[in-house]
Amino acid sequence: MTSIKDFIQNEVLLPRLTHDGILVVYDADGRYRELCLELATDARRVIDASESSIESRETAMAALQGLGARESGVESMLVYVPAPLPVTDEDKQRDPFALYTTCGAVFPDGDGDEYLSLCLKAKPDRSTEIRHVFEDNPNPAFEVIDAIGGGTGWPHLQTVLGVESARDMLFALLAPSTKQKQALKKEEAWAGEVRQLLESCLGLKLLTRSKSWSAVADELWRYILFSEFVFDLPESESLPDALADVPRAAIAAKPMVEDVCDRLRNDRRTQPVYIERAEGIEGDLKLRELCRDIVDLGRRDTFAFEERTFFTLVLEAINNEDRDAVRGILEHHSRSIWLSKGESQVQWLLLEAAADLIEACDDAARQLPDHSQNQDALIDFYTVSLREVDRLEREFEQAAGDYVDVEGTLNDVVSRARQIYAKLIGRVQGTFLKHTEATGWPPSGRLANADVFDRLIAPRLQESGRKVAFILIDALRYELGVALEKQLAEDGQVELRAAFAPLPSVTVVGMAALLPRAGKELVLGRKDNAVVPAVAGKTLANVTQRMDLLRDQYGVRFAEVPLAEFVRKQPDVNGDVDLLVVRSNTIDSHLETAPEMALRMVQESLKQIRVALHRLRTLGFLEVVIATDHGFFLNSADGPGDVCAKPPGTNWVNVHDRCLLGDGSPDAVNFVAPCASLGIRGEFGQAAFPRAMVSYRAGEWYVHGGISLQEAVVPVITVKMESQRPEGPQAPTINLRYVRQAKRITTRLPVMEIEVAAGDLFSQGSTFEVLLEAHDKDGNVVGEAKPGGPVDAATRVIALKPGETVQVPLRMDLEFEGQFTVKVLDPTTLAAHCRLDLATDYTV
Questions:
Q1: Coil, strand or helix: which one is 677?
Q2: CB 630 within 8 A of CB 507
Q3: How far is CA 809 from CA 299, 306, 737, 819, in A?
Q4: CA distance 219 to 217
Q5: Mode of pairing for the β-strands spanning 734-738 and 751-756
Q6: CB-CB neighbours of 306 under 10 Å
Q7: Bridge partner list, 702
Q8: Residue by residue, what is the 3-state secondary structure of 682-722?
Q9: What span, in angstroms and rounded, lies between the C-alpha atoms of 800 and 790?
């Protein structure tokens, strides 16, 4: 067994001396003098400054000169100084040996060189006993440290468990491998040694008289987890009287306890058993009930019920606008083992989404004055930066819709985030309307949505044999276009442009504007007190009439198909077809009917678009234009009285409760302008819009039809694909596990673990994208990855790196029960990489 003196000489001092050539040892207590002098050799000079300061200075200078000349055979020098380490500049100026520290190494150098730290490093398996010694004597002799353990080992335990250190043995006793468990059951010779080990390392005197591993493990788990829980309690909190007599370790064992607990929580092989044990101990000791009055439970994740401490802290930080504290807590908790409980993860995803939204709103509010000079500057600010706030708000509303807050714990945070977002958008809207009143709409010199067909599609169709797909997605607002562009980047050359929807920003007008000659010939008429668009004299009140206009112009060169049908069945397309329109109104129709629940359909539509591109390539459509009719605004902060009164005037036609066409005059709450200044042609003289982001009807959550950046700035995406899909990195091996390692789920938010094998299948820094879905026996989707964390909130795509493991909650349909298969899918082809068969075990 290595002595403490040998450890300091060979593991601490000599490596530094060998590396730097010069080492100065400061030792006010005279503890290290003899071991330093023992290091002297012909090639290694040791200067002892404790004998004579003047002589030692001269000797040190001569040794330094000889070391530099390399003539005396001296290869290194150690200067022993019986004084404290100089810290301040004044101390260093007074110390004649400080100059040697600038060209060499110094001891002690940091907390790791404290005597206690060196002893713990020398005998890591005896840390508890060493700390007990230092509690009684802060400067124990080397002989005292060497006597700790008395040379006693645990040969039977080491042999049975196949490990050497005490830490490894404790870990194995708590969570043995199958082989270790079998070995523990075969013999009992280790039973006596385990009592010595636990008392020596943890201060645990086993109460059980059984010699079985399970009995020892039960007592050890309770002891070590409860000890960590108590260690983590702040001094301001006291342990309930009912728990005062529960066995726990002394403070000297704290490093060993925390090290073992951290290892159990961080090793994915032991996480399931840790969760099971911790939940059982929490229940047996009634910790949730007994500790309900403790405000601060510390910072560690011993038991699941402790999350309320973090909840309280982060809620307070959000309310106090302490951004650093919010980020710190969320970052800490992002590594919590209790995120493997789906319900917990949903709560924290909502908190994180709220914090992200509030932070982004604060940043945007500060930047807004620098981008408000004119309409162009504000639009550029929106398309580059401000649209990110809309993305975060949509993701926040998705998270809020997924979490049923029965106790109202997060009500204040949710309301606060919504109000902050509404306040920012209100400021933006006021600035936008001021500039629009002065310059009109759409902005000049930019791409109007009504010109998209004539500029991006018609010229391509003039060339014989050139095929173009035109994908029309209802209500694909600009920030969704940005998310889609990122997902399509690997499918070809992708370009995203901002276009400007015609007013009113409703489907019937916006879709008509995407047809040929709309930029010059789109007009709005009145029929049965409704607005009806027309192009080239042809009424375009519905999708059939719009498709007929294209059919009349292009004949057999034209075909159209709903996006869902195209993805599901991939219908045959005649080889003569050069213009294929693929259309979807899924986003708009679901948001119109059930907006709070329909945001998840956004993900389904974007997934379908990506699959559609793969199938379009196989049909020879290598050029794709993706466009939309209008955007939208989520008025989630809408409350009683948030409704706009109609402006003075007559003969108004109400268009989707955000626009009036007719004749009237502006007032304090209404923006009214001539239709000609807003690009509206037809029989109407004026258009009116609420100045605020509200409607002419109360209770509207999904808002469009009016004039705002969210409603009227829309994406246009062009994609140019190769005839064959570019080969990316070879698909890696992917492993899929249910974190509870069971065959049945007892929650509608089971957490799945996806692991990507490391190796040379990837180029450096590359990523691999997948989808996670649950399918019933007929192939119907009955569960999808919960957005947030590693799951992209817009597309549900999970981007993985080689060697990475992520945990993803699977949101099961409320109505489903029975057997199902979880699949990891290619987001482009929907081919399965791997699958896992499970079944539900809950009552619907």
A1: helix
A2: yes
A3: 24, 21, 12, 18
A4: 5
A5: antiparallel
A6: 23
A7: 634
A8: ECCCEEEEECCCCCCCCCCCEECECCCHHHHEEEEEEEECC
A9: 8
Could you give the CA distance from residue 97 to residue 410 in angstroms, rounded to a whole number?
A: 62
Taking the model in full, what pTM does it have?
0.73
Do 755 and 734 meet the contact criterion of CB atoms below 8 Å apart?
yes
327 class by beta-carbon count within 10 Å (0-12 exposed, 13-18 middle, 19+ buried)? middle
Beta bridge partners of 772: 824
First to last CA, the chain: 63
Q: What is the DSSP string of 308-369?
A: HHHHHHHHHHHHTT-HHHHHHHHHHHTT-GGGGSHHHHHHHHHHHHHHHHHHHHHHHHHHGG
Q: How many CB atoms are located within 10 Å of the residue 570 CB? A: 16
CB contact at 8 A, 452 and 716:
yes
Look up residue 814 and give its amino acid. L
Write the pLDDT tens digit of every residue in 476-506: 999 999 999 988 987 789 999 999 999 999 9
**DSSP-based three-state secondary structure for 60:** helix
Q: What is the pLDDT of residues 158-210, one digit of tens each?
A: 888 988 888 888 999 999 998 999 988 887 778 888 988 898 888 899 988 88
Q: 193, 156 in Cβ contact below 8 A?
A: yes
d(CA 519, CA 526): 20
Token code pair at residue 733: 């091996």
In angstroms, the CA 628 to CA 511 distance is: 7
Which two tokens mark 683?
């029989």
Reading the block at residue 57, the tokens are 């200075």
Rg from Cα positions in the chain: 36
